[in-house]
Amino acid sequence: MTAHPKKFTHFIFDLDGTLIDTEQSVLKTWQTTLKQFVPGRDFSKEELRVVLGITTQKALEKLKVNVPDDFEKQWAVRYQQAAHSISFFDGVQDMLKGLKERNRTIGIVSSRSRQEYQDYFKRFGLDNLCSALVLKEDTQKHKPDPQPIAKYLELTQADPAQCIYIGDMPTDVECAKNAGISSGLAAWHREDMKNSCADFVFTSPAHILNI
């Protein structure tokens, strides 16, 4: 973990795999949907980990599969059936509460669409905690491009030197670095991700309060 003398006033978070545990429901949905559109090929969950934290189009490019235009619609239908199991990671709610008690500003930057947010994440009450919510439709380019973070900075007029973006994927760390702000890796459920070029590696949500 790198020591920083600066004071962070804005704590910006990714959504999936960082605040909310969606990994198994997402991977299961990709498996079942691909089985319909790519018959004869079975994708393991490990093979599908590359889809986490990026848009559907980028995920399909990484998997090198060609699917019809209604793939995303069918994916959404299946995800609705699996989404009932998603929840906050242990300790996340206490961490968010702790940041608010310390008068820190909380934001969200996610590759999820606004409709997905309404359908699956609205119930978590993040709207009441966040100063700004940047989703897929808000930018033309997506992580690891810096545009989503730049949009957050535009909306909040925050000083980049006082911002940290925390996510669970290399694309999150890269996005923060490309945008010129500090990066944090949420490693509380990813043992394989602790070796990272992130400025901070957090092994539990509570560790975020230590900075």
Q: What keywords describe this structure?
A:
211 residues; alpha/beta; two-stranded antiparallel sheet; 6-stranded parallel β-sheet; 35% helix; 7 helices
Quick recap:
With 211 residues, the protein is an alpha/beta fold. 35% of the residues lie in helices and 15% in strands.
Task: Give a description of the structure.
This protein has 211 residues and is an alpha/beta fold. It is 35% helix and 15% strand. The chain has helices at residues 23-37, 56-63, 71-82, 92-101, 114-121, 147-156, 170-179; strands at residues 10-13, 20-21, 87-88, 105-109, 130-134, 163-167, 182-186, 200-202. The strands form 2 sheets. It has a 6-stranded parallel β-sheet with strand order 5-4-1-6-7-8, with helices on both faces. The protein has a two-stranded antiparallel sheet with strand order 2-3. Helix 5 links the parallel strand 4 (105-109) and strand 5. Helix 1 packs across helix 3. The model has no long low-confidence stretch (mean pLDDT 91).
Radius of gyration: 17 Å
Q: Would you count the extended β strands for me?
A: 8
Question: Strands across the major sheet, in which order?
Answer: 5-4-1-6-7-8
| Whole-number mean pLDDT | 91
Shape: globular
Gap between N and C termini:
11 Å
| Separate helix tally | 7
Residues in β-strands, percent: 5-15%
Helix share, percent: 25-40%
